[in-house]
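User: Hello! My lab partner asked me to get a predicted holo structure for this protein. The small molecule is zinc ion, SMILES included with the sequence. Please write out the structure tokens.
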Amino acid sequence: MHEEGNSGCCCGASGASGQPEQRLGWHEYFMCVAHLISRRATCTRGHIGAVIVRDNNILSTGYNGAPSGLPHCNETNCKIYRSTHPDGTVEENCVNTIHAEINAIGQAAKHGVSIKDADIYITASPCIHCLKVLINVGIKTIYYDKPYKIEHIAELLRLSGIRLVQVSAENC
Ligand SMILES: [Zn+2]
Ligand SMILES: [Zn+2]
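Assistant: Hello! Below are the structure tokens for the protein in complex with zinc ion.
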């Protein structure tokens, strides 16, 4: 009688050792999706991806780039502007670009998808402008991978009660 080896099943779910690979948890799963989405970003200053989720379902996605149909930064050039934060630090941003979080919100609006009481996974913590919009559309928890000037949003986080939680995407 032929006996099956333990080299893994046909779906490839077993590792080379024959041990089952560890299944991704939900937080890692959505953060990995956000990283995949960030690979569509076109602003040369940084690639960010965002996924809006409720009850473990993806409602909407976004990455940073120019408005639809307009030239992207990787085809023209970034147009950089500088702004000074009240604490005196100078920040540089690109005029061409819509941030990933706002594009995810826009995609939901375009298709009439409610995102109230949803969560968002972003490859980097939001800037203060995006955070204000995330608060107003009813996002409950922001999961981020890389910190970006969190000191600029600390007060707004405290006053609004929106949660900010770091999730690593090391296993993607
Ligand atoms: Zn740009
Ligand atoms: Zn932003």
